[in-house]
Amino acid sequence: MKTSIAALLLLFKVGEIVAVCPDGYSLEPALQQCFLITGKTGNWSSASSFCQSTGGNLPSIHNAFQNAALAKFFRTALNLGNKFWLGFYSCCFGPVWFWTDGTPDDYYNFASEHSEARGWHPYLDLDTQKWPTAEGATELAFICAAPDSASTRSTDLHQLSRRTKHTQ
């Protein structure tokens, strides 16, 4: 019973659900996502590995709103240049793309000069809000993203309340 009350207290703050981000991450409300501002640059592999070691991934983008909001967030919150790695990578043969966080590849905003060659990765260009590509060895700025674990609010609360009733 004490555990379930503690879990509910983590999700509520004066009647509101609060974000639950990994350690060091903070919520960007417009994107309903948690971000870790690294202040670092790195090649694509080291940036991706760093983010995964902190409980996140390089950012994924799933619609035009997210693309514009992420570009605005990068521009206003950071002073690290105008090119940021995305967590998109091509695998195997042909233009088959995957997000490192496992979410669907349901939106594309490639620049006309992008490469689909293996080892090339898209980045978000803040000036155009397009996704050109660069060789993975290129040093670019990056931030890490993680889902706000309270973003599945109603489902999580419903499941938590059902589990609480079953454990009492």
Automatic annotation (TrEMBL):
Residues 34-145 form the C-type lectin domain. It comes from Mesorhabditis belari. Coiled coil: none annotated. PANTHER family: PROTEIN CBG13490. Residues 1-19 form the signal peptide. SMART domains: CLECT (SM00034). Keywords: Disulfide bond, Signal. This is C-type lectin domain-containing protein. It comes from the Eukaryota.
